[in-house]
UniProtKB/TrEMBL annotation:
One of its GO terms (molecular function) is 1-acylglycerol-3-phosphate O-acyltransferase activity. The HXXXXD motif is essential for acyltransferase activity and may constitute the binding site for the phosphate moiety of the glycerol-3-phosphate. CDD domains: LPLAT_AGPAT-like. It comes from Psittacicella hinzii. GO terms for biological process: CDP-diacylglycerol biosynthetic process; phosphatidic acid biosynthetic process. The chain crosses the membrane at residues 6-29. This is 1-acyl-sn-glycerol-3-phosphate acyltransferase. Its EC number is 2.3.1.51. Belongs to the 1-acyl-sn-glycerol-3-phosphate acyltransferase family. It is an enzyme of class 2 (transferase). GO terms for cellular component: plasma membrane. It catalyses: a 1-acyl-sn-glycero-3-phosphate + an acyl-CoA = a 1,2-diacyl-sn-glycero-3-phosphate + CoA. The keyword Transferase applies.
Length: 318
């Protein structure tokens, strides 16, 4: 069953993503590289979470209202980040990715047309130019930017990786707040598992960067890395308790449902009782039959012994 579910899910996801990327690319052409495109695309991506991926997602917030322009940062776990974070993305938000992403057939075309910022990640001088490019989008065009400060996916090798300073330099240079988003563990996901449990995504309080200098970026990165680790562990503990409570509820409701069903179906209860009585009656009959066989066997043995004794006596007399 595991491999059947894995095969069907892979097939459905592949077909859905290919169709989505083609349709999204065509729809983006009239407003090519517009900052509104990613939010519209995310609306269709988030539809996959429960029916296709089998993930129940919950959003928590430490703040009621999010800033209009900001740098969003989140932990980077695996390819499922694209799907889960689609539920969190805000209007006018784009991501920053390697220029090589645009070379991927179908997906890359959509990613480029949607207005995401494509950069070269090579030397330090180019990294500075990249930051300035992103800052320009934020300051002059009111973009929100989504960044992964770890710089690479963890794939369960660590809880929270080392935060690079780039995302924090970008926010400080642009003078906009940083909105941290922590996502609980995604590495327990199994493609062949029908229900993959709960995922909690949490908005933390925005960090004000106004008045900060570039020299403070590394210290801010270290501070938020520690905050992410603490919150990540809390969310995982909460998910574990929730999963355990759900299991208890399933067991409890199964007993309740069975009791209610028996009350609504007394005929079944009568049939079950009748079947039990028949079984007991059959057992009694089988016991009586066995006793009769034992008595018959004893009778035959007595007859054989009597005949043998008579034959021995006849020989002795002769």
């Amino acid at each position: 069953m595991y491999y059947l579910i894995a095969f069907i899910r892979t097939l459905v996801v592949l077909i859905y993503w290919i169709l989505l990327c083609i349709i999204a690319f065509i729809c983006c052409l009239p407003r090519l590289k517009d900052k509104r495109n990613m939010y519209a695309i995310a609306t269709y991506v988030r539809c996959l979470l429960k029916p296709v991926y089998g993930l129940n997602t919950y959003i928590e917030k430490e703040v009621d209202e999010l800033p209009k322009t900001a740098v969003y940062i989140s932990n980077h776990q695996n390819t499922l980040d694209i799907v889960t974070l689609a539920k969190m993305i805000q209007p006018n938000t784009v991501t920053v990715g390697k220029r090589q992403l645009s070379w991927i057939p179908i997906f890359g075309w959509m990613y480029w047309a949607a207005g995401n910022i494509l950069i070269e990640k090579t030397s330090a001088s180019k990294s500075y130019k990249t930051i300035q490019q992103v800052v320009d989008k934020i300051v002059n065009h009111q973009y929100c930017v989504w960044l992964f400060p770890e710089g690479t996916r963890s794939y369960g090798r660590w809880e929270i990786g080392s935060f690079k300073a780039g995302a924090f330099l970008t926010a400080i240079e642009a003078g906009v707040p940083i909105v941290p988003i922590v996502v609980s563990d995604l590495n327990k996901y199994r493609i062949g598992k029908l229900d993959n449990g709960e995922v909690i995504m949490k908005y933390l309080k925005p960090i004000n960067t106004k008045g900060m200098t570039r020299a403070q970026a590394k210290a801010l990165a270290a501070e938020l890395e520690e905050l992410f680790l603490t919150e990540y562990r809390k969310l995982n503990e909460k998910v574990s308790k929730k999963d355990f409570a759900d299991c208890q509820d399933m067991v409890k409701f199964s007993f309740v449902d069975n009791a209610e069903w028996m009350e609504k179906n007394p005929a079944y209860e009568f049939k079950a009782s009748k079947d039990t009585a028949n079984t007991q009656s059959s057992a009694v009959e089988n016991t009586e039959l066995a006793q009769d066989l034992v008595e018959a066997n004893d009778l035959v043995k007595d007859q054989v012994n009597t005949q043998t004794a008579e034959q021995v006596q006849d020989k002795a007399d002769s």
